[in-house]
Specification:
The chain is α+β, with helices and mostly antiparallel strands. Helix content is about 20%, strand content about 35%. It is globular and about 35 Å long.
C-alpha cells in the first residue's frame, strides 16, 4: 500500500523498488526480515536489507531500465 510515493505496507513479492538509502539501487521485493525489507538485484545476485522508510516504488523509467538490464543479462547467459 502506498501513501503518495511512500510505502506503508510491504508490497507483493517481485515488486520493483528503489532503495534511496543505498544510492537509489533498484531491486525486487523478496520479503520482510525483522524490521527490514529484503531486496534482490533485478538480474539476480545477493539480497540486501533495506529500511522500509528508505524504499519507494520504482517509476516507469526505472522499471524499464531494470527490465532491459535483466533481458541483456539473460542474453549473455548471466540470468536464468
Amino acid at each position: 500500500m502506498y501513501r503518495g510515493r511512500t510505502l506503508i505496507a510491504p508490497p507483493e513479492t517481485g515488486t520493483l523498488l528503489v532503495d534511496v538509502g543505498h544510492n537509489d539501487r533498484v531491486g525486487e521485493f523478496r520479503g520482510v526480515v525483522g524490521p527490514y525489507w529484503s531486496l534482490r538485484p533485478v538480474g539476480g545476485g545477493v539480497e540486501w536489507e533495506a529500511e522500509p522508510g528508505d524504499v519507494r516504488p520504482a517509476d516507469r523509467m526505472e522499471q524499464l531500465r531494470a527490465e532491459t538490464a535483466r533481458a541483456n543479462g539473460r542474453g549473455r547467459g548471466e540470468v536464468l
